[in-house]
Amino acid sequence: SYQEEEDAADDEAARQAFTEDASRFKTSYISAALRVDVPPVQALVDQLDRCIEDGESPAILELKGNSRELYNSRLGDKDVEAIVQSLEASSHSLITALVFSWNNISDVGCMTLAAFVKTDTQINRLDLSFNNIGEEGGKALADALCHNKSLAHLALNGNKIGDKGGLALAQSLCVNTTLKTAELGNMELGHQTLTMMGIALAQNSSLLVLNIDRPSLFSRQEEAVEHVAMGLKTNVALRTLSMRNAGLRDRGCFLLCDNLVLNHSLTELDLSSNKLTEDAG
Prior knowledge:
Elements: H1 2-35, H2 42-54, E1 60-62, H3 77-90, E2 97-99, H4 107-119, E3 125-127, H5 135-145, E4 153-155, H6 162-172, E5 181-183, H7 191-203, E6 209-211, H8 223-234, E7 240-242, H9 250-260, E8 268-270
Helix pairs in contact: 1-2, 1-3, 3-4, 4-5, 5-6, 6-7, 7-8, 8-9
């Protein structure tokens, strides 16, 4: 039928667009790698070749350092620089996610990505979990979040961002209106970060999922948890909160529960691996 022919023509046009986009990005990437004096990452080249051959969209650049292909040649800062240059040069019309977890990306590479994300309008997911990113990288990403209007998912689990970098990220959530998921677990976050996170939760109306597992909290009075609890009392958006292995005791649990009585959005709270007794159950 005419409709079937039209649909087939549309499918072919889409395949052609995908092929051209992947080809353009591949050419740009290889040139950028040569400019920054690193060999092209073969896993990325292979991924793009598959897209070209199959006529599929290279929507997700997934380069996990713990994969078989990259286990012995993980991404470093120069690799990130080459990828960002190629994204900028090719306009990356179909690429919407960068998954670079378990690599050797430091503050330098993170700042390169942050500068790109700051003005980008297409990347909606950035996963830098379990790299070598510290305070300065965290601050750079926080600055980017204050300006970015497209990123919906940020994962930084397992980086040593620390309390000052975490504080900057929490402050950015007072401004950012597009981020839906923030995975900030096991980042050595401290009292300042969680205090500011409570303030952010009271103001932010877009974040749906927050992971702040395993912060570095040492006070038995649990003042930081109290601030988080107070933020939850007036928060209207958050659906999932994870505070696993946070050193939480019964008092902290009671504070959370008392404030959650007035919260009407949270549907999932994970407090596993804490120091709770049966009284908190």
